[in-house]
Specification:
Immunoglobulin-like, 2 domains, 45% strand, rod-shaped, six-stranded mixed β-sheet, 1 helix, 231 residues
């Protein structure tokens, strides 16, 4: 009976311990390629920090404050790109790249209260959504109509592209999804001697950016007969 009681206690401890690990509080932060991002430490504002340690990959120490000594160039991946705020414990990563998309751990120590705290930050890295580029591919007159084709291209790969004509445009138009080239095409025709504006929108699910392009083609004036009368 004593052996069973001890076994049950050990099992309960193991379940509680594993739940504690899985249930760790993780702060999710998004950074953008080429920009700076701040990883919050979640330190108590009333603390006086005398120990700050930031880690990746469980135990790789990338930044440390010990007493008055600050070291932020330990790991080649982050060399020259880290700034450690010794008051708040926040860690700034400059010139963010996709390789920085990692889980970070920070361990804090308070000098006055002699307390410690551990927090986790999961960094996701995205490309900043930019305005799409619209280019005129074709413009010509055919059977009295202005025939237009436009191409829309985004520097971001994981976006959807859509077209929209200006308000009041009643003619039909056709558009394609962007294929392997990443370009979405639009074709339409309308009566000449007018300016029509089309919009292309790039969307990534949470943000969208649009660009406009105005197009026209002019119907040539009929040739004048300059032959003098009687000739």
């Amino acid at each position: 009976m004593m052996f069973e009681s001890v076994s049950i206690r050990v099992m309960c401890f193991m379940v509680f311990f594993s739940q504690g690990i899985r249930g760790e509080d993780v702060r999710h932060v998004t950074g953008y390629v080429g920009e700076s991002v701040v990883l919050p430490s979640d330190a108590d504002p009333s603390w006086t920090l005398n120990s700050i340690r930031w880690f990746i990959n469980e135990n790789v120490n990338i930044a440390v404050l010990h007493g008055k000594t600050v070291i932020v160039d330990r790991v080649p991946l982050f060399r020259g790109r880290l700034e450690l705020n010794t008051s708040s414990g926040h860690l700034t990563i400059k010139n963010v790249s996709s390789r920085d998309a990692l889980k970070y751990r920070v361990e804090l120590g308070d000098r006055i209260l002699a307390q410690q705290k551990t927090s986790f930050v999961q960094l996701s890295v995205q490309e900043r959504l930019g305005k799409p580029d619209i280019r005129l591919r074709h413009s010509f007159l055919d059977s009295g109509y202005c025939v237009i084709s436009l191409g829309c291209l985004s520097m971001n790969s994981k976006v959807s592209l859509s077209w929209e004509p200006e308000h009041g445009f009643s003619e039909r138009f056709w558009s394609s999804n962007h294929g392997d080239s990443g370009e979405s095409m639009l074709w339409t025709s309308f009566t000449p001697n007018r300016v029509v504006t089309f919009s292309c929108t790039a969307a990534d699910g949470s943000h969208q950016e649009s660009s406009n392009k105005s197009v026209t083609c002019t119907e040539p004036e009929p040739r004048r007969n300059n032959t003098p009368p009687g000739c």
